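Summary: Need help interpreting a holo structure output

Steps to reproduce:
1. Submit the protein chain below together with the SMILES for NAP.
2. Request a joint structure prediction with the ligand placed.
3. Inspect the structure token block that comes back.

Expected: a single structure record containing both the chain and the bound molecule.
Actual: see attached output.

Input attached:
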Amino acid sequence: MRVLVTGAAGMLARDLVPCLQQRGHYVLAPPENDLDITHLDAIRRWTESANPEIIINCAAYTKVDQAEKEEALANVINGLAVQNLCLACQEGDIPLVHFSTDYVFDGTKAGPYTIHDHPNPINAYGRTKLLGEKYVLWLLNRFYLVRTSWLFGIHGPNFIETMLKLAGKQKQVSVVNDQRGCPTWTQHLSEAVVSLVESGRYGVYHATNSGPTTWFEYATEIFRLAGTGTEVLPITTDQFPTAATRPKNSVLDPFPLTEVIGREMPPWQEAVRQYLEERGRAPEP
Ligand SMILES: NC(=O)c1ccc[n+]([C@@H]2O[C@H](COP(=O)([O-])OP(=O)(O)OC[C@H]3O[C@@H](n4cnc5c(N)ncnc54)[C@H](OP(=O)(O)O)[C@@H]3O)[C@@H](O)[C@H]2O)c1
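--- attached output ---
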């Protein structure tokens, strides 16, 4: 397939592009200064000249806390720009892959959120991502709307790197233990999304590594696997205030992704282990 990827410099895109190429797809991944998704004319220029068979939108405003102060800007990138992409997809009859987030949910549900559950975001970032979801649902017939969560990847700042940096400076780290979610490696997400795109089964999906955890349990596993000997102290969200409120539970149920691609995404512990291995092989930045 000829695939146009937006947001090429981002953490997910930098794993997704080689993954698509390894599976035999032809990828166009222009930098943001060549394809700014807030400009409809720029998107049209690319769809008309490159004639993609599918567009994968990895571009987004992802600063969750800063979005509390910049909701208007986040709405333009995560909302209105998605409308631009949908219009270009309509005009060229091109399907769209769009990524959304567990933070569209309010976190009050006891169990995992399914694709049937109603979003009710409790922070600005979640509201802007929900607007993007709505444009996809309002405007397109052929789309994959993929919600994911707690991403970590070799090409971006992430929780694992934050924890390892702290472990280099201190013996003890306090980590929130009352927010549940699913850490997800961008490499595993990329593999699942390529399979999904190859399936031709459009719809709404939840794609995360399997198994729920808390930030505290996640940090404990990171330090165990990395062998840092760091002590982790569980704290509550109230003891670690942030600008944006996070849902207490944002575990995503994988139905129907597992059925469509024919496999479960690997457990998050395995993803962390593989990430640390790959990180060990990567050249120093
Ligand atoms: N990271 C997570 O934990 C997480 C969790 C759930 C869902 N998601 C979703 O997963 C997707 C990928 O996230 P990610 O972690 O890979 O994000 P990321 O690393 O922040 O990548 C997004 C990329 O989009 C670029 N961008 C911003 N505005 C743009 C524009 N107008 N036109 C073109 N590119 C633009 C960004 O550039 P700048 O850096 O220069 O702004 C950045 O390179 C997003 O839809 C995100 O909402 C992420």
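--- end attachment ---

Reviewer comment: Residues 62 and 125 are 7 Å apart (CA to CA). The two ends are 33 Å apart (CA to CA).
Status: needs-info
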